[in-house]
Design a protein that fits this description.
The protein is an alpha/beta fold and about 500 residues long. The protein has two domains: about 5-65 and about 100-225, P-loop containing nucleotide triphosphate hydrolases (Rossmann fold); about 260-460, Nucleotidyltransferase, domain 5 (2-Layer Sandwich). The chain contains 14 helices and 20 strands. An eight-stranded mixed sheet has the order 6-7-8-2-9-10-1-11, with helices on both faces. The chain has a seven-stranded mixed sheet with strand order 12-18-15-14-13-16-17. Strands 4-3-5 form a three-stranded antiparallel sheet, with no helix packed on it. Strand 9 (about 150-155), helix 3 (about 160-170) and strand 10 (about 175-180) form a beta-alpha-beta unit. Helix 5 runs antiparallel to helix 6 (about 240-245), helix 8 (about 320-330) packs across helix 10 and helix 11 crosses helix 13.
Amino acid sequence: MASETLVIGGNRSGKSLCTFIEDAWAATGTHPIEGKYPKEGGNLVIVGANWKHVGLVIVPYLFRAGAFKIIKDRTSGEWRAFDPMLLGDKEREAQAKPAPPLIPPRMIKSMSWLLKSAGYLNSCELTNGWTIYCFSSEGDPPQGFQANRVHLDEDLNNEQWVPEMQARLADRRGRFTWSAMPHSKNEALIGLNERSEKAESIGNTTDIRRFVLRFLDNPHIDADEKRKMLERWAALGEDVLRQRSEGEFMTDSVLVYPSFNMSVHGYNREEMPSGQVPDDWCRYAIVDPGHSVTAVLFAAVPPQGNMILCYDELYIRECNAIKFAKEFHDKVGRQQFYAFLIDAHGGRITDIGSGRTAQEQYSQELRNLGTASEVTGHSFIPGCDDIQAGLQAVRNMLYIRPEGTSKLRFLRGALPNLEREMKRYKKKVQYVAGTTIVTDEPSKRGEFHLVDCLRYLCAYGPIWHEPPKQLAEQPWWVKWAEERRKKKGKGAIYLAPVTATGNYG
């Protein structure tokens, strides 16, 4: 009964079949759970990777015989699904036959085709008023309609289908299902998987539910065939084997920082006095400017110099220089910083109206608010432009030292956006002639702002410098006296002696 369902698995694990059976139950008004879908007049949307996927997978599963095998039950005499795990079914396999279509022909009122000879189905109207719509993810998602069920099958070419289809379900309290092999190149699929993992950890099974199916658990595949397939996949690498057999996301080989793990690189707030970064630690702030998102990463080095702690962040959307300076000023307060760093490329972008660079505008607004660092004042040090050097600097600092710690640490619970980016920061993958080639260049698909800040920080190589002594806060009357003196004006001071008449000489 979950609102969203994720079914991931390897090849021939049964993920498509079970979700298409759910589609058929919904569309024919025969779902075993009463009230899950309306009996009549509903809309079912099925999205495939492309039109070939519609013709080769979706249409055969729903409208042709043979989606699975059926056999007569010895006790009841009724036809049921053939199950080789049941006693007696394996011996009677010759008596099994293909199951009839999941959508019976008697319920089909009309069908509309994009290309009937190839099986490219546009829509199918059933006699109970339900309509099944098929789409290719290569196109743009349609808008302005309502749906009772949406089923995404396998990978998508356009990830905008996910939020758009989820929005189509709100009015009818519909249900969303995605059945796919775990492709790590698809950010939307990874995001849904992360949400489902989080829901599992807190015991929430009403909002989103995940099912993982394994190739080896499919009893309909012969053991010898399983052995052959495992050998073939193993020859292509461990990642391929885990993905196609176990239904796991293959991320280690494509992640930029595969060793990152908060269980190792995390730092507990309780390890610091009063749970805050001490005043004698040397602080740095790194800025990645932009209008869509301006990201700021805050880091500090303790006097021992044994680590660099990333302890806070800013993630400012639809940002300008004024908004940045205000949020930055409110975040840092009276904290003493050694230096500010900035993305050199983003900081050089010039505003058409004013003719000033982003760095100049940010510096001016910081000056207006009186926010400065010891070395750079209101300005910034340009971050390193050598991407590969920066990536290697981060990897070196993530390295686990013999004592079991790393140079680079992350304050637990304080960096949600940086943690999300680190887990999704992948290398560019090229697909040439059916072969997957992983490059060393990081992918820029998605939001990756704080990881850039981290790269500038590590390339800079921050070390501890003794912070300047923080001046005690002035009493209230000092500011009051200063304002009172300004209101009085400069005036005139006469130093000549007074005459006998009482006038000045």
